[in-house]
Write a structure and sequence with these properties.
β20 and β21 form a beta hairpin. The two termini are 40 Å apart. Helices cover 30% and strands 27% of the residues. α6 crosses α8, α9 crosses α11 and α12 runs antiparallel to α13. It is of the alpha+beta class. Strands 8, 12, 13, 16, 19, 20, 21, 22 and 23 form a nine-stranded mixed β-sheet that branches. Strands 1-2-5-7-6 form a five-stranded mixed barrel. It has 14 helices and 23 strands.
C-alpha cells in the first residue's frame, strides 16, 4: 500500500474531465442529513458487522492510501477535535466490492483536498481504528490546486499566512484558536447583555480622528468632496450615546491605526469599549473581571453561570496564569516604589534611575545639537514600562496613575495629582484600560486645546471635535469607561505568542 504525494494541477484537470464524462457534477450540490464527523467518532465502534450504525458524512480528503481493490482515505471536517496536537479525522474504507463499479470509478479520480460525501456503516478495523465502511461515494467539490501533503508544505510561516484557508485545514491549532475566538467574543457579549448593556454600532468613517492619540488612515468621499478617517477609537460616539440616555452601552468593532506591525500590533484590530452611567473606574474593575472570567470558563469548557470547582488556570508559553477571582489590585505608586526603587515624586531619584536604566533624558536633534529634556512624568512612565511591567504576571489591576499621564480622566477626590484610572496587566502585557470618565465640558475643551497646541495645522489629528464638546455641554452623566483589546485577550486565552495568529487575515506586505 502506498501513500502518494499530491497529484499535479494537470492531472487534476484530467480527472475533472473524466468525472464530467461520467455524468458526475464535480462541484456537487446539496447533501442533506450528514452527521458531523466528531459526532460519528462518539458512536459505539465495537458492534459486529451486521449491527454497525449507519452513517452519512461530508468532509475533505486530507490523506489517501491506495491499495489493490481497497482505497483508504482520511476525512476531516470542522467538528473533529484536537487529538495530541493534531486535527482529528476519520478513516474511510473504499472497497471495490462494497461501493460498486460506479463508486470505484469515482474513487480513481479523487485527490488530496477533494470534498466528498460518504454513506456507509461505522465500526473499527481489526487494529481498532475507527472507520467508515463506505457503501456509496458522492463527489462534492473537486480541488484543482495541489494541496500540501502531510509531511510538508505548511511549515513555512509566510506560506501559511498567505494561504490562511489551507492553514485552517492543515494546522490544527489555527482552526481551534479561531473557533475559540468566536466563543470568547460570544461569552463577552452574553455577559454584558445579561447585565443590561446594549450593543450598538457607531460610524467607521469619521470626519475627525478622535478618541486616541494615533495616526489614522485617510480616505476621500467623492459625493461630499471631503476627507474622512477610518476610526482610531470607539470612544467619542459611545459617550454621545450616554448623553442621549443609553446608560449602559458597548461596541465590539474594528478600529484602524496607520502605524507599525509587531507581534502585538496590527493596523486593523478589534476593540471592545463600554460605558456605564453613574459608575466609575472601580465599577469597571468588576465588569472587567467578570467578563474575562466568563471568557476563561468558556475556553475551558466550564459553565459560565456557575462557580468553578477548580482554579481557573491557563498556560501561556512556559507560564501558568491564574484567572481565579478576585484579581489582584495594586497602586501604581506602590509598584513603582517596589520595582524602580524610588518614590514617584522623587524627581532627582527618578532621573538617576532613568540614567541607570539607559533611558535618555533628552531627545537630541542631530542637525542642531539641541536637546529637549523630557518631563518628569514622561520618565516615570518610561521607567514603569522598563522596570515594572515585566513583573506583572497578573491578572492585576494597576490603578491610581499619575494624573499627568491621563489628562482625560477624573481626578481622585482630595488628590488632584492622581487619576481615577486602571490598566489590567496579564503576563506583563496591558490588556484593558479604564477610567472614571471626564464629563466636565469646560475641562474637556481646555484639555483638547492643550493636546492640539503642539500639532501642525495640516496634521490630521489637529482638529477640535466641537460637536463632542457640545454634546458634553448638554450633560453627560458621571460614568465609568472601559476598553479591551480583543485580539490581545484571545492571544492570552489561547496561548498564542503573536497577534497575526489570532486574526484570520492579518495585514501582510505585498507578495
Amino acid at each position: 500500500m502506498s501513500d502518494p504525494h499530491d497529484s499535479s494541477e494537470g492531472s487534476r484537470l484530467e480527472k475533472l474531465r473524466r468525472l464530467e464524462e461520467m455524468g458526475v457534477d464535480p462541484w456537487g450540490g446539496r447533501f442533506d442529513g450528514h452527521t458531523p464527523i466528531g459526532d460519528v467518532l462518539k458512536l459505539p465502534g465495537d458492534k459486529p458487522e451486521g449491527e454497525r450504525p449507519r452513517v452519512r458524512v461530508a468532509g475533505r480528503i486530507v490523506l489517501r492510501r491506495i491499495g489493490g481493490k481497497i482505497h483508504w482515505i482520511d476525512l476531516w471536517d470542522w467538528s473533529t477535535p484536537l487529538r495530541d496536537g493534531e486535527r482529528g479525522k476519520i478513516q474511510v474504507m473504499l472497497g471495490q466490492k462494497q461501493i460498486g463499479d460506479e463508486g470505484w470509478a469515482l474513487a480513481q479520480n479523487l485527490d488530496l483536498g477533494d470534498l466528498v460525501g460518504v454513506d456507509g456503516t461505522f465500526g473499527k478495523t481489526r487494529t481498532g481504528e475507527p472507520t467508515i465502511f463506505a457503501e456509496k461515494l458522492t463527489v462534492l467539490s473537486k480541488s484543482l490546486q495541489p494541496h500540501p501533503d502531510k509531511w510538508g508544505g505548511m511549515q513555512d510561516v509566510e506560506f501559511r499566512l498567505r494561504h490562511r484557508y489551507l492553514d485552517l485545514v492543515y494546522n490544527a491549532e489555527m482552526l481551534d484558536r479561531s473557533l475559540k475566538r468566536i466563543k470568547i467574543i460570544r461569552a463577552i457579549r452574553s455577559y454584558l447583555d445579561g447585565r443590561g448593556f446594549c450593543e450598538v454600532e457607531t460610524p467607521t468613517l469619521h470626519a475627525i480622528a478622535g478618541g486616541a492619540a494615533a495616526r489614522p488612515f485617510v480616505t476621500h468621499h467623492n459625493a461630499l468632496d471631503i476627507d474622512l478617517f477610518l476610526r482610531i477609537a470607539l470612544e467619542l460616539h459611545l459617550k454621545r450615546l450616554l448623553v442621549g440616555g443609553i446608560e449602559k452601552v458597548y461596541e465590539i468593532g474594528r478600529v484602524f491605526r496607520n502605524e507599525g506591525i509587531s507581534p502585538k500590533h496590527n493596523p486593523e484590530f478589534t476593540m471592545m469599549e463600554l460605558y456605564q452611567a453613574y459608575g466609575d473606574y472601580r465599577s469597571m474593575m468588576d465588569v472587567t473581571e467578570g467578563l474575562i472570567v466568563a471568557a476563561v470558563k468558556t475556553v475551558k469548557g466550564l459553565p459560565v453561570d456557575q462557580d468553578a470547582a477548580e482554579r481557573l488556570t491557563l498556560p501561556y508559553g512556559e507560564k501558568t496564569i491564574d484567572f481565579t477571582p478576585p484579581f489582584q489590585r495594586a497602586l501604581y505608586a506602590d509598584l513603582f516604589k517596589q520595582y524602580v526603587g524610588v518614590a514617584l515624586d522623587d524627581v532627582p531619584g527618578v532621573h538617576e534611575k532613568a540614567e541607570a536604566a539607559h533611558i535618555a533624558l533628552g531627545l537630541k536633534d542631530e542637525k542642531t545639537g539641541t536637546v529637549t529634556i523630557k518631563e518628569h512624568d514622561v520618565l516615570v512612565h518610561e521607567l514603569f514600562e522598563h522596570k515594572v511591567e515585566s513583573h506583572l504576571l497578573g491578572p492585576v489591576f494597576v490603578h491610581d496613575d499619575p494624573a499627568k499621564l491621563c489628562p482625560l480622566t477624573k481626578r481622585k477626590a482630595g488628590n488632584p495629582n492622581i487619576a481615577e484610572r486602571f490598566e489590567l496587566y496579564i503576563n506583563g502585557m496591558e490588556l484593558a484600560n479604564a477610567y472614571t470618565e471626564l464629563n466636565d465640558p469646560i475641562t474637556q475643551e481646555a484639555t483638547f486645546r492643550q493636546q492640539l497646541a503642539g500639532l501642525a495645522e495640516e496634521d490630521s489629528m489637529a482638529k477640535m471635535d466641537d460637536d463632542f464638546v457640545r454634546a458634553l455641554r448638554h450633560a453627560m452623566p458621571p460614568a465609568g469607561g472601559l476598553g479591551i483589546g480583543i485580539d490581545r485577550l484571545v492571544m492570552l486565552l489561547t496561548n498564542t505568542q503573536t497577534i497575526r495568529d489570532v486574526i484570520l487575515f492579518p495585514l501582510l506586505r505585498p507578495h
